Amino acid sequence: MAEKNAATDLAVDRTRLAHDRTLLAWVRTAASLISFGFTIYKFFEYLRDKGELRTDRKFGPREFALLLIGIGVAALLIGAIENVRAMVSLRREYTNVPYSRATLIAGLLAALGIIAFIAVVFRQ
Q: Does residue 13 fall inside a structural domain?
């Protein structure tokens, strides 16, 4: 175990905060992808309901929306897993590393993204 001193504590805090900032960047990117994908889906659903949309496409707005939402959720899960691994490694060396609220936000956004994905899949 590392010797406890102020410089080490500050370095561990900076490292933890850097990991949190990285996770929040993943959250921001995923939120953009998920919301943009769902917005595209709803906009083109509105046009379809008005009869102003071609429906003979193999890869249409619905598929594009699913792709964006899926990429957003996948990116968020990859970022969250990477963050958890880094924090476990840091806590193995330094026992008093606090838990991050950014991980909670990432989990909530992942749940929202999965719900949006399911909503688009099951709505025709």
A: yes
Detail the DSSP E strand segments found in 1-124.
none
Q: Work out the average pLDDT over 34-48.
A: 87
Domain membership of residue 1 (yes or no) is no
Rounded distance, CA 25 to CA 4, Å?
Answer: 31
Number of structural domains found in the chain: 1
Listed residue (119, 124, 110) closest to 33, CA to CA: 110
Burial class (CB in 10 A: 0-12, 13-18, 19+), 75: middle
pLDDT for 4 equals 67
Is 29 a residue whose pLDDT tops 70? yes
pLDDT, tens only, 82-102: 999 999 999 998 888 888 889
| Domain of 85, in residue numbers | 6-122
Helix axes 6-50, 61-93, angle to 10 degrees: 170
